[in-house]
Amino acid sequence: MEIFRLIFSSFQENTYILKDKSGDCAIIDCGCYDKTEFAELVNLIESENMNPVLLLNTHCHLDHVFGNRFVLEKYNLRTLCHESDEFNRINSPQDAILFGLTMDTSPEPGGFISESNVLKFGTTELAALEVPGHTSGSLAFYSEKNNCVFSGDALFAGNIGRTDLPGGDYDTLIKSIRQKLFVLPQSTIVYPGHGNATTIGDEIRSNHCFIFI
Question: Which listed residue, of 29, 104, 130, 160, carries a Cα 20 to 30 Å from 191's Cα?
Fold first, then answer.
């Protein structure tokens, strides 16, 4: 599996495109906001001869769903996400106004996923992990074969997601990270929703949010 990262919008959100050896690809957290960013996404997909077959959301805050409507119109794909994040999807236009932005409501999901689900495209498998705390429906997507996890806004390099927004809870997030992410092999590469990649081992050893917990 090849992993591509595009950084979109004023939120500097990481959109990941995962390319299976078959050419099929999955898009995680499509955050492209305007026509220039839409074109950047399409240019990457076309230049790498990728066939989008899966759209996933780690959670449905506005910066992670900006591009969902575009992907639906361009590739006929609806996102898969956790049902508990419907509140954030539905309220994203109102949230956008607070940041001086405009957006339509992100399209209804094609289905809901939970920890029991394994998402497949080509020969690649991603296991869904429930990591609530940043939002009540936050997910991470883990590829054991490729030794990596897409953590959304649960875990960052040296930090954790904010918990002061609706559905957020600090104690729940700490528990999620300890029980779902820190149990992965320490060599696992963490691809977060913002910022640079890290590893599980580095975060166990040096993430300041856990040093005194």
Answer: 104
